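Annotated sample (chain length 206).
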Amino acid sequence: MLLVELSPGSRSSNPKTVSGPDVYFNKGEGDDTSDDDDTASEASVDASARPLSAYVAQFPEDCQVEYRVNPHGRDVLMNYWGGECPFCDGLHYYCPGCGPARLFPDLWGGCGVDQACPVCLGYNFAMDDKDALRVIEYYTDRLHRGDAKCDGGYAEMKREILDMVRERYERINAQREEMGFPFYDVNKIVEGWFEDDDDDDDDDDE
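Output written by the structure step:
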């Protein structure tokens, strides 16, 4: 059981850690979890081992107990930070090669990409997104090096890359839906993915 307390707009250190849909409780340095605190002891140890109704029944009848079972990450984002992720400022992606990216060294990467946010979209999801980005970057580099001549042709490799791009953004959209965030226009992204390359080709033909 995890109680989600209301403190809208606060960006200070918080004991609730959001990783996409999942919510974890991190004990702060000032938390009092001594054996003398029966409520804290019951909530942290026994509540998960017996029915919630039995836990709630221990309180006096006139005591108003507010509780939420397995809160969703989107609820915590809304209640604590007004619906805006404190890490990516509501973008739902970030640059893995700049400043705050050092908080997530496993996701460290190059600049200029829209790495999925490990806080509001989830750390495990962000790790998978990092892998997807690396594959797309790898094949895009090969395309620009001219390796496509050996692998079925330039047009075929571009098609395969666009399939990967579409698959990646469709996965992101599914996670965004889970979190209640706006969607990407996947078709628009795919259609414009090689736009700069096409412009360069036109310049070369002139």
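Annotation: The helical segments are 38-46, 52-57, 73-81, 123-145, 154-179, 186-191, 195-205.
Annotation: Confidence is low (pLDDT under 50) at residues 1-15, 27-48.
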